[in-house]
Design goal:
2 domains; 6-stranded mixed beta sheet; 4-stranded antiparallel beta sheet; about 35% helix; alpha/beta; about 350 residues; globular
């Protein structure tokens, strides 16, 4: 293996050039059976996938380093979900020096709605302890007590309300850049947002006032009160994420893999039965093998039917799915076609 510059890539960016299938062709020339041809195709596909992931990884690491170089007080949003796990792994790679223990030059931030899946919170705490990172937690419950968040009912979804708590946390710690794990393939509002996204003094996003991003030149200048939301894995897809998880052998919360769970079928979604989302009158619950494609507030996050128990099995499922992960799992995104964009304009991640 050798390191070389990526043609047309970012300044100083290096990608790992993996051996091509041609290097393995000599092993197959002596046997022209169908089995050997399939093996050759598998080698070619594997080499292409690794090269593609290397390029995405290099781009993301470049963006993370750019944030640290240009911003005064950045932080990384970490919820324990798969995208934030990948982002944390990339950040640790960005500042690793050989075999030395790596120390992140910024803290992790989690906005806790108080309605999170317990498996994810336990995973978050375990990961923070294992990496030695500093964790800043903003609690929606504190915002409710202060009166800055008001819910109509105790069992209302707190997903949108966490935007207020996030802005309060940013103001309290004077963060000027928040690294996040949003991807453009998730939802159309996120598809049109820039990698370096400016939020005004009220934390709002104006899609009509976005800055151009030519090549890999990013404008990080901020007026007083403004801050950046930066999305290093913006160009990744759900399939890329799972292929990278499999390649890097990353650990995730157990609910990302197939398990049996009590659910009810509601508006074409599999709603998990919990104290926050109980069975309604006229509904009938059932036990189904499911997994979560995305994790968030219990009140608005649903699993999908699945028997995929490994990353490779999930890759096979993801490769043929026709519905985005948010479209298949998030109740809050189905209230209207512009639900996500409206929340982002109000300060949502």
């Amino acid at each position: 293996m050798r390191l070389g510059p990526a043609p047309g890539g970012p300044r100083g960016r290096a990608v790992r050039l993996l051996p091509t299938a041609g290097a393995n062709l000599s092993k197959l020339c002596g046997n022209q059976t169908m089995g050997s041809m399939k093996e050759l195709r598998d080698i070619q596909a594997s080499a292409h996938t690794h090269a593609h992931l290397d390029d995405l990884e290099a781009e993301s690491i470049y963006i993370i380093r750019e944030v640290v170089a240009e911003c005064r007080r950045p932080a990384l949003l970490f919820s324990g979900g798969k995208d934030s796990v990948v982002l944390l792994h990339l950040a640790r790679k960005a500042f690793r020096l050989g075999d030395r223990p790596s120390e992140l030059p910024f803290p992790l931030v989690h906005i806790d709605t108080g309605h999170n899946f317990p498996e994810v919170i336990a995973f978050r705490d375990t990961t923070v302890a294992a990496t030695g990172a500093r964790l800043v937690v903003g609690h929606v419950e504190d915002s409710i007590r202060r009166g800055t968040v008001r819910l109509r009912r105790d069992d209302d979804s707190r997903n949108a309300a966490q935007a207020v708590t996030l802005l309060e946390t940013i103001a309290e710690h004077e963060f000027d850049a928040m690294l996040g794990g949003a991807r453009r393939d998730e939802e159309k509002a996120r598809a049109k947002e820039r990698i370096f996204s400016v939020r005004d003094e009220f934390g709002q996003w104006d899609p009509k006032a976005q800055r151009p991003e030519l090549w890999t030149l990013y404008n990080t200048r901020l007026a007083p009160g403004e801050h950046l939301r930066v999305f290093p894995i913006s160009n990744w897809t759900e399939l890329d994420i799972w292929q990278y998880i499999a390649r890097e052998r990353l650990v995730l919360p157990s609910i990302y893999y197939a398990h049996e769970r009590e659910i009810v079928r509601r508006r074409r979604l599999l709603v998990p039965v919990t104290p926050l989302t109980p069975v309604r009158d006229g509904e009938k619950s059932e036990i189904v093998s499911v997994r979560f494609r995305t994790v968030g507030d219990i009140s608005c996050t649903c699993p999908v039917a699945s028997t995929a128990a490994t990353a490779h099995e999930i890759i096979e499922e993801t490769a043929v799915t026709e519905i985005t992960e948010r479209g298949a799992t998030r109740m809050d995104d189905q209230t209207s076609e512009s639900a996500m964009e409206r929340r982002k304009k109000e300060g949502y991640f």
